[in-house]
């Protein structure tokens, strides 16, 4: 869906749902001054066009015993197919995401582990891949995420 097809009201609805995905349609309607039926049509359209891909829960992973995050840079031997990079990393439950990137390194893996020893075992497992020539791991001390705002959100009007 092209950005031009999402109007300011759609952006407000998206911001409200990002803030609380359990928010009722009637609550959203009162905040954006539309009827509940109109909000439902807009949310349905945003889902059908793939703008809204799901509704999620945010989890405190540390309270579940998975309190350490790290990023591991991967360098692969020669020219490696992106599918091979994804297969090497995503078979591991510790891998939260894998990013293939331009330049050096070839890929960046976001890991979530229980403790430093678990991280060591996970990185060792990655290193056992015959295609990986080297790794570099960075442990996350603290993090910040953009949260509710994103390029084009109501808080950031589109650039001309």
Polypeptide structure, described:
The protein is α+β, with helices and mostly antiparallel strands and 160 residues long. The chain folds into two domains: 3-48, Arc Repressor Mutant, subunit A (Orthogonal Bundle), CATH 1.10.10; 61-139, Alpha-Beta Plaits. 34% of the residues lie in helices and 19% in strands. It has a four-stranded antiparallel beta sheet, covered by helices on one side. The model has no long low-confidence stretch (mean pLDDT 88).
User: How many individual helices?
Assistant: 5
Order of helices and strands: HHHEHEEHE
Low-confidence segments, given as residue ranges, are none
* Number of strand elements: 4
Largest sheet: 4 strands, antiparallel
Overall 3D geometry?
A: elongated
Shape-level CATH architecture of the largest domain: 2-Layer Sandwich
Determine the strand fraction and express it as a percent band. 15-25%
Mean pLDDT: 88
Helix content: 25-40%
The tally of domains stands at: 2
CATH overall fold name of the largest domain:
Alpha-Beta Plaits
Provide the fold topology:
Elements: H1 8-19, H2 25-32, H3 36-48, E1 68-76, H4 82-90, E2 95-100, E3 107-113, H5 116-127, E4 132-139
Antiparallel strand pairs: 1-3, 1-4, 2-3
Short description:
It holds the Pfam family HTH_24. The protein is an alpha+beta fold and 160 residues long.
Which short descriptors sum up this protein?
5 helices, 4-stranded antiparallel β-sheet, 4 strands, Arc Repressor Mutant, subunit A, single chain, 2 domains, alpha+beta, 160 residues, Alpha-Beta Plaits, 34% helix
């Amino acid at each position: 869906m092209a950005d031009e097809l999402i109007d300011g009201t759609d952006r407000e609805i998206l911001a409200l749902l990002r803030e609380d995905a359990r928010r009722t349609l009637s609550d959203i309607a009162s905040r954006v001054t539309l009827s509940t039926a109109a909000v439902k049509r807009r949310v349905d359209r945003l889902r059908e066009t793939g703008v809204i891909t799901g509704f999620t829960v945010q989890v405190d992973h540390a309270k579940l015993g998975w309190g350490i995050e790290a990023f591991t840079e991967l360098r692969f031997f020669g020219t490696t197919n992106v599918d091979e990079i994804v297969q090497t990393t995503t078979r591991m439950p510790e891998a939260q995401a894998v990013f293939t990137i331009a330049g050096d390194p070839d890929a960046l893996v976001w890991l979530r582990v229980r403790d430093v020893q678990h991280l060591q075992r996970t990185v060792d497992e990655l290193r056992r891949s015959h295609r990986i020539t080297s790794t570099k791991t960075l442990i996350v001390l603290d993090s910040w995420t953009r949260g509710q705002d994103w390029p084009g959100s109501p808080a950031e009007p589109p650039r001309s």
